[in-house]
């Protein structure tokens, strides 16, 4: 599955993408904000990531900057306790350009096309930038904080939890900044 946004191409990972994934996630500032990435993050982990099977109901994508053709991150849908969860990461040189919001909005459009009615998301409490992305996308804080294991940190970390009603036609997929 592929999806195109204004500046990005969301596409499946290919085996040859492992070096671009490694370059993005082998940055401690990226890895520490992900639940499943180990630290240190090496070639074996990058190769495993690009080899992950695709679930047609919960696709995950590499985020490619259309202008340069560079892999700049990843975004997709996953399973969290039987519900759909949106996740994303970007390589540090691409932070602050609106790419995370644009990529996640593309993933949410795909989720709606696939018939998903609700999406969950969360961010570690010490990563407020991700919270800003989620709120721009229309996610609503649940008021709950959960302890979520961070493989890179080797411990549970407080996570701020959000939800988005995808079934509501008027629910935004992206709000103005």
TrEMBL record:
Keyword Magnesium among UniProt keywords: no
Alphabetic keyword roster: Acyltransferase, Transferase
GO molecular function terms noted in the UniProt entry: acyltransferase activity, transferring groups other than amino-acyl groups
SUPFAM superfamilies: Acyl-CoA N-acyltransferases (Nat)
Domain of life: Bacteria
Residues in N-acetyltransferase domain copies: 8-167
Keyword Acyltransferase appears in the UniProt entry: yes
Family membership: Belongs to the acetyltransferase family. RimJ subfamily.
Name of the featured protein: Acetyltransferase (GNAT) family protein
